[in-house]
Amino acid sequence: MLRDMLRRFIRKEAQPLEMKFFTAGELAPEERARLRRAIEQMGLWGLTVPEAYGGGGLDLLSACIIEEELGSTFIPLEIGEVPPVLYACTDEQAKRFLEPALAGERRPIIAAREPDCLLPQGWSATAVALPEGYLLNGQKLVSVPPDPNDFLILYANAADGLTAFLLDASAPGMSVSRDGALIVRLENLRAAGSAVLGRPGGALELGAAEAPRSWIRTGARYVGVVSRLIEMSLEHARNWVSLGEPLSVRPAIQRMLADMIVGVESVRWMMYHAAWQADKNASGDLRRLAASVRLASGELLQRSVDQVTMIFAGPGPAPEIEPQRFVRSLAPPEVLDFALEQARAVIIADMLAQPTQ
Predict the structure, then answer these.
(1) Per-residue pLDDT at 320 exceeds 50
(2) Comparing C-alpha atoms, which of 79, 83, 153 is closest to residue 112?
(3) Which pLDDT value is given to residue 23?
(4) CATH 3.30.565.10: does it fit domain 108-202?
């Protein structure tokens, strides 16, 4: 029932907005508000947030059902979730950032990567300690243009190591530019010591306990994306006529479609099995199982978008919606490649640590 309700909503309300979204690069505020109201009316807002933070505490298996359906639209639908790192907020920070984010009143935006570097050890944004706080300088990539009421979870190098900061998007010294990408620039931005999320130098520890469950949910989202790409490809293959015959009769097209269909079904069952195992044994070590889902789903996504691009023999069903552009907006290639290498490292480390039988 949950899956069917969300599927109907996405097909009726979200997918018709996709052309407009890809043209403008974002949803209009009134459209975001309308979709938000619909999500609330369906009872989905905050359903996957832990009960300790006022959410529905939905189990991982059910959360993956939601993620798979959300992956079937190019529209970034909001369902009342926040990045798990925010659960490290102090009481004061929770009132300013976490609670408004959970209520949908403020939008958290991750500002970690930099234009010229993927890995934390190469990030150049700095936070210099002052008697009354920190002085921040540098630049960060963000996925959406920040509104004045939004806030950033920004990572910068301090004397103690990589440190996370909670910053109002309207803070003096912060600006946003579009140089082929959305870049947040920090110029002598002064942040109070109370803006540090977690402990100074402890940014990489934030949300670590939730990481395996997040990997499994990401796998569910990728399954939904590939399912949508298959749907688009099947429609195109049936309707596009070349040399007097529909594209669907070409053996090469049939092979690619078959490979994608079998691939997504295989990863879907792997992902749901992992989610079931996580719910069954909540205190167990999920890292290898979750990393396997992360690797399989990420490779499926990469492989499928290449195949879909070949099926369309170009950009896609319309210039505004093309597979490569869509997947880059969801998972930039360098980020996805890095995530897959991380997953491989987790899997092999776990295998090597196992005693010889």
Answers:
(1) no
(2) 153
(3) 76
(4) no
CA dihedral 24, 25, 31, 33 (to 10 degrees): -150
**Integer Cα distance of 148 and 109 in angstroms:** 12
In the chain, domain spans: 2-81, 108-202, 208-353
- CA nearest 347: which of 276, 272, 270, 240? 270
Same fold, 108-202 and 208-353: no
Tokens of 6: 């969300």
Asked whether the beta carbons of 197 and 153 are under 8 A apart, the reply is: yes
Per-residue pLDDT reduced to its tens digit, 249-293: 999 999 999 999 999 999 999 999 999 999 998 766 889 999 999
- Of 332, 325, 328, the closest CA to residue 23 belongs to 325
Domain 208-353, CATH class in plain words: mainly alpha
| CB-based contacts of 274-283 (< 8 A; 24+ apart in sequence) | 274/216, 274/219, 275/60, 275/61, 275/63, 275/64, 275/216, 275/220, 276/61, 278/60, 278/212, 278/213, 278/216, 279/59, 279/60, 279/61
DSSP letter (8 states) at residue 126: E
Token representation of residue 338: 């890095």
d(CA 321, CA 48) in angstroms, rounded, equals 29
pLDDT digits (tens, 9 = 90+) for 88-146: 999 999 999 999 999 989 999 999 989 878 777 789 999 999 999 999 999 999 988 89
Please give the full DSSP string across 130-199, using - where no structure is assigned. Answer: ETTEEEEEEEEE-SSPPPTT-EEEEEEEETTEEEEEEEETT-TTEEEEESSSEEEEEEEEEEEGGGEESS
Backbone angles phi, psi at 26, to 5 degrees: -165, 165
Spatial distance between the Cα atoms of 72 and 80, rounded to a whole number of angstroms: 18
- Residue 60 structure tokens: 């991982």
Question: For 2-81, which CATH superfamily applies?
Answer: Acyl-CoA dehydrogenase/oxidase, N-terminal domain (1.10.540.10)
- Calculate the CA 43 to chain-centre distance: 22
**Is this prediction's pTM over 0.85?**
yes
User: What is the structure's pLDDT at 207?
Assistant: 86
Q: Cα separation of 307 and 323, whole Å?
A: 10
